[in-house]
Structures are given as C-alpha cells and as structure tokens.
C-alpha cells in the first residue's frame, strides 16, 4: 500500500515539475508535494527563472502542517548555498518526518549531500520512486552536468515519403493546423527553439510560441557559421523583443557580427569540424549559456549533423498524408552512411493521430 501511495504522490510531483519545463533554466524543473496523513497540504514547482525552488513553495503552502509530513520531491534537494538557502535545510527546518526522492542530483555541488543532510537530521529518506520517469523529465539538466550539453529534441514535419518541401522550396503547409498547435506546445516546454541558417533564410520563421498564452518565450537559436542571415528578417526585426542567439564560427563576417550585436542578438562563437560548425561545440556553448532543453526544427543539414554526431535524444515526427516525390527536399541531409548498422537508432515511445496527421515520438537507443 505504501509503495502504491508513494508512486501516486510522486506522479503528481512529476506532473507539477513538468509545468516548469522551458521556464526554469538554468535550474532543473522540479516538482514537490507535501502530504500529511493522506491529505495533500502543499504543492510546488520551480518558478520561472529557476527560483524559488519547488520545496520552499510547497512548504510555504503547507505551513505548520508540514511538521511530521512526507515530502515527495522529483530531484534530490539541493545542499549548497546559492542565491537561496539549501532546500535540504528548508525541509529540515520545516520538521518533515520523511522525504521521498525520485532521482539523485548529479550536480557535483549536490551529488548525495542533500540526502545525507536529511538523514543526519533524523529524517527518513527513500529514493528511486518513479526514477525512470524522473530521469526522463530531468534529462536536460542531468545531461548538462554529465556531458556538458542540453537535451535535444529533433522535430521533423514531413510528407509520407519524408520530404519537407517541394523541389521549388514550397513547404507551408505540409502538416495541418492541429500538428502546428502541438508543435507550439512542445516549443513551450523547451528552453530554446533551434534551426539552421538555411531554414532561417528560406522560411523567415519567427520561432515563437503563439496562441498558447505564453508569458515567457523560448530562446531562438540559429546555427549560422558566417552569420549570413537577412538583417531584414522576422528574426532580426524582433531580436530586441524575444531572445535571439546566433551560433557562429570563428570566421564569421566581422561587419555582420557588429550588425547583429547592434540589434540585440547574442552571439556564441563555436568551433569548426570538417569545415562546418561542430554540433558538439554548438551544444556545449548553449549549455554553458544555461540552456538544458533544445527543440530543433531543422533543416536537413543541421538535423544530419546532430544525428551523425549522436547528439539527438528524442525524435518527434509529424507525418502528413501527402506524397511529394524524390525531387522534393528530404527531411534529413546527407549523412554519408554506407552500412545500415551505422544508422542512429531510436525506440518508439508514442504514436497518435493529430487531426489529419500522425505524431510519432522516439527516444535514442543507448549504444550497446
């Protein structure tokens, strides 16, 4: 019975934590539930900008009822002093009797210290409840600590035969309005939306979340080695209103760099590999700047470089019932594969109809 209740309350904490996705960076999007007896007395999740953390918000809601209660937290409570006191100390001061944690924090500043603080204070601590789901939800934050890069979701909207545009470049719209609305919701759950320079030039996108009541827009990232992007584009015109970050090479045109600086864009210089921007360097630069979850919307060359480097964690496909033919533009560019064994592999985790299109979601299969 206790195991079932623990899973039930942790599932709620995870659902709360997901409310902070796309808003909490550079901090993790954590959820917390305080339970007194069989009554939920406090709920919280990481606030926009990363503070306040989930635990103090849930404890404030619980008030005196937190004493002797059980706290369900999706990530190990922090143990270090930053802009706010450690959450482990806050839980101890509130007098909770038990803390249930989904996954431990792999941030070197915590890494088990928060759990030790709680146990040393006489609090019962249990870990591992719905750990797989928590590791998925917190994958971006954990990747930045383990590998120095954010979680990457690659979204591809294509025809039945895998084309994203006709031979003339016409692409609006292959999928329907229902699929586009789902894409906006997915953007909202990520820290940034990223495209390659070719997509930025061809589509003149805004890369914003629309018609979702978004109070905070994701960062817009364009990967452009030489910064040769139209200064009259939608992205340029709105650079002072919605964050625009440009990942470029060391050989970027100096006058263009100055022009983009002048209209409010943020530039991140990245290394080259094989004459092109190194995708690993791009992701490291984004992680160093605080991003934990990136939603990549192509185009084909950027998608191919990320896939070839093994840097895509999740694939999201929207497939329309249209056939464009071999002359159309492929969803993924040249990868140079000679053997099927070398193809990146993903495992299917979801498929469903979205009005007249099909959504399918896949996650990376670990090597070996």
UniProtKB/TrEMBL annotation:
Note on how the cofactor is bound: Binds 1 zinc ion.
Boundaries of every CMP/dCMP-type deaminase domain copy: 1-126
Keyword Zinc carried by entry: yes
UniProt-annotated binding residues for substrate: 171, 187, 203, 207, 210, 297
GO biological process: one example: riboflavin biosynthetic process
Biological pathway: Cofactor biosynthesis; riboflavin biosynthesis; 5-amino-6-(D-ribitylamino)uracil from GTP: step 2/4; Cofactor biosynthesis; riboflavin biosynthesis; 5-amino-6-(D-ribitylamino)uracil from GTP: step 3/4
Recorded GO MF terms: 5-amino-6-(5-phosphoribosylamino)uracil reductase activity; diaminohydroxyphosphoribosylaminopyrimidine deaminase activity; NADP binding; zinc ion binding
Keywords annotated in UniProt: Hydrolase, Metal-binding, Multifunctional enzyme, NADP, Oxidoreductase, Riboflavin biosynthesis, Zinc
Keyword field contains Nucleotide-binding: no
Catalysed reactions listed for this entry: 2,5-diamino-6-hydroxy-4-(5-phosphoribosylamino)-pyrimidine + H2O + H(+) = 5-amino-6-(5-phospho-D-ribosylamino)uracil + NH4(+); 5-amino-6-(5-phospho-D-ribitylamino)uracil + NADP(+) = 5-amino-6-(5-phospho-D-ribosylamino)uracil + NADPH + H(+)
Binding annotation for Zn(2+): 53, 78, 87
A Pfam family annotated for this UniProt entry: dCMP_cyt_deam_1
Active site: 55 (proton donor)
CDD domains in the cross-refs: Riboflavin_deaminase-reductase
Cofactor(s), names only, from the UniProt record: Zn(2+)
Binding site for NADP(+): 157, 173, 199, 299-305
EC nos: 3.5.4.26, 1.1.1.193
Family of the protein in this entry: In the C-terminal section; belongs to the HTP reductase family. In the N-terminal section; belongs to the cytidine and deoxycytidylate deaminase family.
Purpose of the protein: Converts 2,5-diamino-6-(ribosylamino)-4(3h)-pyrimidinone 5'-phosphate into 5-amino-6-(ribosylamino)-2,4(1h,3h)-pyrimidinedione 5'-phosphate.
Protein's name in the database: Riboflavin biosynthesis protein RibD
Source organism of this protein record: Lutimaribacter pacificus
Taxonomic classification: Bacteria, Pseudomonadati, Pseudomonadota, Alphaproteobacteria, Rhodobacterales
